[in-house]
Amino acid sequence: MLPYPQIDPVAIALGPLKIHWYGLMYLIGIGGAWWLASRRLARFDASWNKDKLSDLVFWVAMGVILGGRLGYVLFYDLSAYLAEPAKILRVWEGGMSFHGGLIGVMLATWWFGKRNGKSFFELMDFIAPLVPIGLGAGRIGNFINAELWGKASDVPWAMIFPTDPQQLARHPSQLYQFALEGVALFVILWFYSREPRPTMAVSGMFAACYGVFRFIVEFVRVPDAQLGYLAWGWLTMGQILCLPMILGGIGLIAYAYKRQPVQGAA
Length: 266
Description:
The protein is mainly alpha-helical. The protein is built from nine helices and four strands; from the N terminus they run ββααααααββααα. The protein has helices spanning about 20-45, 50-75, 80-85, 100-115, 120-125, 130-145, 175-190, 200-215, 235-260, and strands at about 10-15, 15-20, 160, 170. The protein has a two-stranded antiparallel sheet with strand order 1-2. A two-stranded antiparallel ribbon has the order 3-4. Strand 1 and strand 2 form a beta hairpin. Helix 1 (about 20-45) packs antiparallel against helix 6 (about 130-145). The longest helix has 27 residues, at about 50-75. It starts with 9 loop residues before the first strand and ends in a 7-residue tail after the last helix. The model has no long low-confidence stretch (mean pLDDT about 90).
C-alpha cells in the first residue's frame, strides 16, 4: 500500500480569498491547450491569428465549465441541487461532468464555427488533440481533492483517502484516468492527427478512445453514492454515457474514410 500524499486542496489562501488546486488545474488545462493550439495554428488555417485562437479557446473553455457543471447537476445529482440551488455555484467542491462539458464544447464550437466560416467538424478535429491536457489536469485535481476514488483493493499501490469514511485501501482511480484520459489519449491523438486525415476522423478517434478508457476505469471506480450501480451490480452512469461515444466515434471514423479522400492534417 502507498501512503496518500497529504496535499491541502487550497493552493493559496490570502485572508478570505482561497484559490483551490481544483480550479488551478482548469487554468493549467486551458493554458496548456492554448499553447499547443498556437503551435498547430498555421497548419489549421494560416489566415488565423492568435487573437482568433484566443477567442476560440475562451468560448470552448466556457463550454467546458458551464456544460461540465450543468451536466453533473442533470446527470448525477439533480434532486440535491434542486433542493439547494446555491450549491451549483460552489464548483471548488468538485462536481463536474465530462459528458456535460463535451456537450458544452460542441455547442460552443458550432456557434463559433458559424460566426467564423468553419464547419463544426473542422474545428472539432482541431480541438480534439488538445482536450486530454485538460482531462489529465482535471484528474490530478480530483486526486488532490481526494474524490472519485476507486474500489477497495489489495494491490501494492492502493491508498487510503482521507475523505473515505471507511478508511479502506483503494484503487487510486483518479491516477488511472490521468494516465489513460490524459497521457495515453494525448499521445494517440497527437500522433494520429499529425498525418493527413479526412474530416471527422480525429473527432471520431477522440470519442472512441475516451469512451473505451472511461468505460474500463469505471469497473474499479466507486460510482457516485447518490446513483450507485444502475444495473447488474456493475453498470454505472459513466459507462452508459460512454457507450454512445464509443459507437459514435467508430461510426465517425468509418464514415470519414468512406465519404472523402484524406485531406490536410487537422
